[in-house]
Amino acid sequence: MDQMQASIVxxxxxxxxxxxxxxxxxxTAPGEKSPLVLPEPTATLELPxxxxxxxxxxxxxxxxxxAQVPAEACWLxxxxxxxxxxxxxxxxxxxxxxxxxxxxxxxxTYQDLSLAVRVDEPARVGIDRLLAAxxxxxxxxxxxxxxxxxxxxxxxxxxxxxxxxxxxxxILPGIGMASRALADQTDALPLVVLDDTVPPAALGKSTxxxxxxxxxxxxxxAVSELVSxxxxxxxxxxxxxxxxxxxxxxxxALSQRCAVRYEPHLVLAGIVLxxxxxxxxx
Length: 282
Description:
By secondary structure, the protein is an alpha/beta fold. The chain has two domains: about 5-110, Nucleotidyltransferase, domain 5; about 115-270, ATPase, nucleotide binding domain (Nucleotidyltransferase, domain 5), CATH 3.30.420. The chain is built from seven helices and ten strands. The chain has helices at about 60-70, 80-100, 125-140, 175-185, 205-230, 245-255, 265-280, and strands spanning about 5-15, 15-25, 45-50, 70-80, 100-105, 145-150, 155-160, 165-175, 240-245, 260. The chain is globular and about 60 Å long.
């Protein structure tokens, strides 16, 4: 199958959800269009997964595949959840046999990426962080480093160097994880879910409001300080790119502290770019 021509389905499996993106056949290799533009999916699907088992709504995925995925497609999976990745691969293989589909299903590792990974144990870095770095290299200025902030189940703040290498970064609990920890590890504090449309006031007048304030502004403060620390090591201010489930919610607060760009499909785009880079170099 010609990977440059086959329809690509990019799959980003996190710890709490799976995100699918279907990309059209008419994709070009990186650099053939504006280097500041990412591939955009023509259709997306997000499914929650059970963290302990990796189970997800197979029926919903089947419906989406029937409407969006052609008979010939390349499925590229970037996963940080082994159970969910195994179940997805088994499901797709079964469907391909039953429905006579030519689906090439592959799970990506850091060795599939044209990316220098400058950390102690490259194989242990979450593939989502590395794929986001691949996409960031398409967006950043050629003379600038980049900082990628992924606000998901966990929050990661990573540095991509001027030459495009992944230098590492920081990992901290995501907003939802921090909320569950407060509820689980205390006797009286409730589980609180943030309103993703209006930032909470910093001064909480009730226990629930105080938790909302701490969760939101604590995350903003932590991310802002990490961005500041990483930026201070660079000769030119880095490009800052944010993504992840809480990215839109925190964009306004973070943009008041530094110039940021929000890219909701950063990891999916990184999957596609990684494949195009490999195909063009083959």
